[in-house]
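Page 47, continued from p. 46.
Same chain as before, 263 aa.
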Amino acid sequence: ILVVTASVSGNCALAFEAMGAGALDVLATPSLSKDAGRREFLLKISQLAAIIAEQVKQPPAPACHPDTLACGAPGAAEILVAIGCSAGGPAAVAELLRGLDHVAPAALVIIQHIAARFVDDLAKWLGGFSKDPLEIVAEGVLVEPGKIYLAGKEGHVEAHTCSRLRYDTNLGGLAYQPSVDVFLGSIARSWRGRAMGIVLTGMGRDGAAGLRAMRDARFFTVAQDEKSSALFGMPKAAAPYAAEVLPLSQIAPRIIRWIKTAR
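Result:
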C-alpha cells in the first residue's frame, strides 16, 4: 500500500499511523501535469515493486569509509542501541519510545525507511513519544548519552570509530534509503563500545546482513516476532542472526535491562 495525500504535513499523524498498520510509504499527491511529479510518482512505485517482489538482487552494502572525523571528544556515548525498521515502523518505534525510561548512559539511533521529505515530520511526531531529546542525524554528529537520533535525508547513515555518525551519499544501487544493513554493518566494523542491534517490522530483507555482521562481531542482537509485526519480512530474514526474537511489548524492557548490564 502506498498512501497518497494532498498534505503530508497536515496529515502526518494519520500518515504515520497508516505506515504503522503496514503501508509501505507516503507520497504527496503528484502534479501529473509536471514531469517532476510524474517521475517521482512512477519511481516510487517501481521502488516499492522491487522491494515487494525482490526481483533484483541487492548489491552489497557500501563499505564504511575510513574514519576522517576528529576523535577524542569528551562526553561521547560508549553504549549504542540501533533500531532498523520499515513498513509498520513508525508505530512500533513510538511504542518502544513510550516504554523506555531515559536511555542514558546509552544513545539510540533509528533507521526508518521513509521518503526524505517526511523525515522532519516523523522526527516531530516520534519526539512526542520520547522522554529524551530526539534529533535528526547531522553529518559528523557526536553520539551523546541520553539522546535519540533519527536517520535523515542525506544518504545512508554510518557509525564511526570516534563515536560519531556520518552520511554515505554513495547509495550503491540499494532500494532502501536509509539502509539498515549499511548502519548495522558499520557498527560491526567500527563501533568500539557496546552495541545492541534491533530489527523491527518491515517488508524485504534489509537489516538481515547487518544483524548477522553485528552477531558475528559479538554485539547483542534482537528481532521482532511475527505475531507483533505489521509485516514479518525484515525481522523474519534477520531472526536467524538474533540472539533473541521478542514481541514488540517486550523489546523496550529488554533494552532497559541490556543497558544496565552494558554499563
